[in-house]
Specification:
heterodimer; A: 586 residues; alpha/beta; Rossmann fold; Helicase, Ruva Protein, domain 3; 4 domains; six-stranded mixed sheet; five-stranded parallel sheet; B: 338 residues; 14 helices; globular
Chain lengths: 586, 338
């Protein structure tokens, strides 16, 4: 099978990646984006087969910290009266691979532990009076079933060598394994001796640079992959096909831009600085070979960039931005660690903090009974058994605050104000169900007005909206400034703000209240940038009639805010509702 | 135990390496923030720093790493002990993982002893372990706010006060805060940004030869860590000696009035809030002079550390798209001349 055929289909790419990973898993990883299904099961089965028996451990994404890194076995400690340590899942998996299911739900702390283990090959266990460093050389398989904006923590993803997609792979696409178990045993012996000719590193780094892959980890993973492929194929030296495959499997999925030649489209990512051209650098005469090699490898890598990758990539960046602001806000539901305390309930110490009083109260009734059962010489005044443990629960209230910024100007009002009102009413009903707060900012004439500070009373919002008059100029900047003030206040109170701007984009009043379109648009863009810098999620709904082709100022403002942009050719309240619900953190 | 990648073998990233060295020489500069892309060696540098730092003398068995020579700032138990038994240990570099709970960070009631023996004892947390060393927060920008507040408070006062579960404990917690993170995933709160003494923007080297060198060294390290360490042993011990020497010298380094005035003028030109900018600038300059073997802090030192000491203290201006480093550069030109 030629190099290009070996990675022609998603299944082949995935199974080759899994094979390479299985050969050299420690300190590396495999990210599988797919829902549960036959393809994923087949891939995992092949992986388990390729690894030595017992080397694949499954972990739940929500594993508690002490199960992950180990700690004090409280039950055993109580029984024996001296500290008994308990091995965590990571040190138990030393030398093997852990597969984390539902990795998109993984908490940042679990991801941080996995990252530390991948980086250093050991874990520091410093808790409950224990202070140990235990070896934990592991490989990680992250099974990401996330649909839209749920993603495996990026710090972990960065440390996984191979990223494969199995979403489009059905059971018919599955092909038999490329290698036998025996092949792996052979290749494992061969791997340390595989030689790497000069120029390979240069070629891989060059390809990485051209694909806009900034991380130094990526070419390292590519290099390791190239050696593993050589070993699997029975070679003793890395050859061109090995490099090509390695680049296609490790570098191509990380591409942030398409390589330059004959690519007429503009740079997909405006933030990316153009790569300094390296061609004119004076280099040694033997430069020719690596450069040619680089070109050929790049060609193959380009072929392996899946269609639509860049688009999904940008969506991913946006989702990441949003999730980060939420990540800071923390859990949104019942929490066993933070928030307003609720009643104590029975539970394991793994899941929360001990409620001492409640525990003692639970143990107290049994005092006499247990004293009688206790061995002679046990002088404890009160005997606590693991069943008595009560843990504290906390409720953390962290809702969303949606700030509607409504254009009530003359240009907008006549056509669309009624429809905008309808859309907001639908959203209000939704917010009511979710117990979210809403705020209403309207702008018209010379400035903006906060019609309604954040409230949970949707009835008040509806009244304020119904009484909203239309007409006058379009001071978008003032509207956005006012919205940002409201959003920041909401955030300080622990809410997650979302700004929804509804306008036709025809700003004609500047911040100072003076008329003039160019200045007004500049001010509006500036106000939008402030929202982006404040890291407030935003979306813009363009209510300009479809007939007005050409310039779309609302789109520009949306870009300045890094907001999701929705154009409503026919303003439809239900459609607006759907769009906003998509942007709200659920 | 696994050896980390040697500090001296990190390719490029001179600013980051210098900032860490300065913090190692003079912990009072107040922490280092390394912000930048993934895979640029931030974590590597921090873990390498741990191996580079010279060992410290501690009171044997003290959970807070008390210094045996000090008289002030000892923890409660150590004050009572005479004579103090001395032990040596590596300088602590403690990881604060995201999602660490508050009781893990500040310490809490020792449950096992409380339940098994009915004794009320304090279980020291990460802050205790980090005393006289470094506290490293990866993804500091994603740390929860209540932990951030707590860290800032302890870092500023040098004392950790625990009042919980019927415990009342005060113990020394002087540490250098090292934060890293990727600004794309969330900004750091301004209050926290300002508390870091030095901030550096870590970028991937954009030239192919240094990228190749990064990969080559890392690959050599991964294939045979021991041989790699032997190769870099000389450089590492030189660097370590440099830090030790600089620590001895730093007390004797003068800061002439002219230098102080320059520092002040630079901060005025940049409009930094408060006096923390000037102080950090001077301290960092002094540490740099100590590292370089100079006798006093001069213009050259100030220029070298100005960007890392000041760039994160500027007011954000959405109309000025040029980065803060460029603005510092401009101000340096104004104040120092070309």
């Amino acid at each position: 099978m030629s190099a290009n055929e070996a990675i022609a289909t998603p299944w082949r790419r995935a199974s080759l990646a899994a094979a390479i990973f299985a050969l050299d898993p420690l300190g590396s990883g495999l990210l599988v984006r797919a829902g549960p299904g036959p393809a994923r099961d087949a891939l995992l089965a092949a992986l388990a087969e390729a690894l030595a028996p017992g080397k694949l451990t499954r972990l739940p994404a929500q594993i508690a910290d002490d199960r992950l890194i180990g700690g004090l076995d409280v039950a055993a400690t109580l029984r024996t009266g001296r500290p008994i340590a308990e091995l965590g899942a990571l040190s138990a998996a030393d030398g093997g691979v852990v597969a984390v299911a539902m990795a998109e739900r993984m908490s940042a702390s679990v991801a941080a532990r996995l990252c530390a283990a991948l980086d250093s090959g050991e874990i520091a266990l410093q808790r409950d009076g224990l202070s140990l460093r235990l070896p934990a050389r592991i490989g990680v398989v992250a099974l990401d079933e996330g649909l839209e904006d749920e993603r495996t923590p990026p710090a972990l993803v960065e440390r996984l060598a191979f990223w494969v997609q199995l979403d489009s792979v059905g059971h018919r696409d599955i092909e038999p394994a490329l290698f036998e178990t025996w092949d792996f045993a052979q290749a494992r012996l061969r791997l340390p001796g595989v030689r790497t000719p000069d120029g390979v590193i240069e070629a891989l780094v060059g390809v990485g640079a051209q694909l806009g892959v900034d991380s130094a980890r990526a070419p390292l993973f590519a290099l390791r992959a190239a050696r593993a492929i050589a070993a699997l194929r029975g070679g003793e030296c890395v050859e061109e096909d090995d490099i090509t495959l390695a680049a296609a499997l490790t570098l191509a999925p990380r591409a942030t831009r398409l390589p330059a030649p004959e690519d007429e489209s503009s740079q997909p990512e405006p933030e990316q600085e153009p790569e300094p051209e390296t061609d004119d650098k004076p280099e040694s005469e033997e430069d020719q070979t690596p450069r040619e090699l680089e070109e050929r490898v790049l060609e193959a890598a380009r072929a392996a960039i899946p269609l639509g990758l860049l688009a999904s990539l940008q969506a991913g960046i946006k989702a990441r931005r949003r999730s980060s602001s939420e990540g800071k806000s923390g859990d949104s539901t019942l929490s066993s660690r933070r928030g307003r305390p609720l009643d104590a309930r029975p539970g394991s110490l793994r899941n929360g903090r001990l409620s001492l009083i409640a525990t003692l109260r639970a143990a107290a009734p049994w005092r006499r009974l247990r004293e009688r059962e206790a061995p002679a010489g046990d002088t404890r005044r009160i005997i606590v058994k693991p069943d008595d443990f009560r843990i504290v629960r906390y409720r953390q209230r962290r809702g969303a605050t949606t700030v509607f910024v409504v254009d009530a100007s003359g240009s907008s009002a006549m056509q669309r104000l009624a429809e905008a009102k309808g859309a907001i009413e639908l959203l209000l009903a939704d917010c009511y169900v979710r117990r979210d707060e809403v705020a209403l900012v309207a702008f018209r004439g010379r400035g903006a007005e906060i019609l309604l500070p954040p409230t949970r009373s949707t009835a008040r919002a509806r009244r304020a909206l119904a009484g909203l008059p239309g007409g006058g100029g379009t001071p978008i900047a003032s509207g956005l400034d006012a919205a940002l003030v409201v959003a920041e206040q909401a955030r300080r109170k622990g809410q997650t703000p979302l700004i929804v701007l509804m306008t036709d984009g025809r700003a004609n009043i500047g911040r100072d209240g003076a008329p003039g379109r160019p200045q007004a648009l500049r001010d509006a863009l500036d106000a939008g940038r402030r929202i982006r810098i404040a890291n407030v999620t935003a979306m813009a709904i363009d209510t300009a009639p479809a007939a007005s082709r050409g310039a779309a100022p609302t789109r520009e403002i949306a870009q300045a805010m890094s907001a999701r942009y929705v154009k409503l050719p026919v303003a439809d309240a239900a459609l607006v509702n759907a769009a906003v619900r998509g942007a709200l953190p659920s | 135990m696994a050896q980390p990648f040697p500090f001296s073998a990190i390719v490029g990233q001179e600013d980051m390496k210098l900032a860490f060295m300065i913090a190692a020489v003079d912990p009072s500069v107040g922490g280092v923030l390394a912000f930048g892309d993934r895979g640029t060696g931030k974590s590597t540098a921090v873990r390498a720093l741990a191996a580079l730092l010279p060992e410290i003398d501690v009171v044997a068995g003290c959970p807070y790493n008390c210094a045996p020579v000090a008289t002030a700032g000892l923890c409660g138990p150590c004050k009572g002990k005479t004579p103090l038994e001395v032990a040596q240990r590596s300088a602590p570099v403690v990881d604060l993982p995201l999602g660490a709970t508050e009781d893990r960070v500040v310490g809490a009631l020792n449950l096992e002893r409380a339940l098994a023996h009915g004794e009320k004892t304090f279980e020291p947390g990460l802050l205790a372990q980090a005393n006289r060393g470094f506290l490293y927060i990866d993804e500091a920008n994603l740390l929860e706010d209540h932990l951030v507040d707590l860290l800032l408070d302890v870092a500023a006062s040098g004392v950790n006060v625990v009042e919980r579960e019927g415990l009342s404990v005060r113990h020394p917690a002087r540490f250098v805060l090292i934060g890293s993170g990727n600004p794309e995933e969330g900004e750091l709160r301004p209050q926290m940004l300002d508390r870091f003494g030095l901030a550096i923007d870590v970028k991937t080297p954009q030239d192919v030869p240094s990228r190749v060198e990064v990969v080559r060294r890392r690959d050599a390290f991964e294939r045979d860590p021991e041989a790699f360490h032997r190769k870099w042993e000389g450089e590492e011990s030189q660097l370590r000696a440099k830090i030790v020497k600089a620590r001895e010298r730093i007390g004797a380094i003068a800061a002439p009035d002219a230098t102080i005035e320059r520092a002040t003028r630079l901060c005025l030109a940049l409009g930094t809030d408060g006096l923390r900018g000037e102080l950090t600038l001077l301290r960092a300059g002094r540490a740099l002079a100590a590292l370089e073997g100079a006798d006093e802090v001069g213009d050259a030192e100030l220029r070298r550390v100005a960007a890392m000491a000041l760039s994160h203290r500027l007011r954000r201006n959405p109309l000025d798209d040029s980065g803060s480093a460029a603005r510092v550069e401009r101000a340096i030109h104004e104040v120092f001349g070309a």
